[in-house]
Amino acid sequence: MSPKNKTNxxxxxxxxxxxxxxxxxxxxxxxxxxxxERLFRxxxxxxxxEREKEILATAQRFEIGAExxxxxxxxxxHGPGVLLVHGWGGSGxxxxxxxxPLLQKGYSVVTFDAPAHGDSSGSLSSLVQFxxxxxxxxxxxxxxxxLITHSMGGAASSLAMAKGFKADRAVYIAPPADALEWFLxxxxxxxxxxxxxxxxxxxxxxRLAMQFDQLNAWVLAPYVPVPLRIIxxxxxxxxxxxxxxxxxxxxxxxxxxxxxxxxxxxxLKEPKVIGEAVRFVADEPSEIPRESLxxxxxxxxxxxxxxxxxxxxxxxxxxELDLELFNPAVRLGHDLHFNL
Length: 340
Hints:
The protein is an alpha/beta fold. The chain is built from 14 helices and 8 strands.
């Protein structure tokens, strides 16, 4: 199917879903909310490339758990462990370009398929389940010296750290900053009514025993006590560069590297990105320019920073005020606690 035809199919499908949810929401909001929750938690299917299959075939395969609660993981080599964490709709083999460079540095490498992804069991998943899977893999195949993550794998890793997972260093590639914003985008795409949106959100929060407000960068930042390198493409159409910038600004010890023209997925195969991630894991000097956490422009609005206080924070006073007003966790000094 040509890209144009695929776009047309997606447009027709989304229009049908919007019409269906509009009708169902007016007739029976609880049922519409239940279906919206299921759709939001259903990962899109992904077919492994032949290269991924070849690389995975060279690893030792593990099955953690059984039947409906099975995680599939792979391990290469010996030495300090590095865990590769894929994103929503991805799979463990997707990060195969990092395997050989890490092995050459003397590390062992572990990757896995998250719940309802790849060879792991299940049909529904979530950021919370990703984080739990990281902890399960750690208990079975850890400990890990470092993490390299893609997309939602970064947010899940921060949540896993909040729950007690430990590593020495981390690299987040194209990480999202706010799970609630992604749910609200999903709601707008389907034109859900406010009642259906609220019911769907409540269903998920009860089922996963965690509120969306606990799953954003401002709340999770204090639980990421490791040196963190964020690599994000300025023109990423799936996870905006601003998300990576926000995580860099709010997380102590974080550094941001910005690429241009690599998008959301091609960035995983760029040799310079791979090299930079591996060097950071090995605590070696960077070889490509990176943006400072104290830039001459605001990380949010892009305006030049002139006030010395603003320069130290990396954010202009106006954006900092907006951030505090919009995020109670920032206003209260991150004084939120997890019931874990």
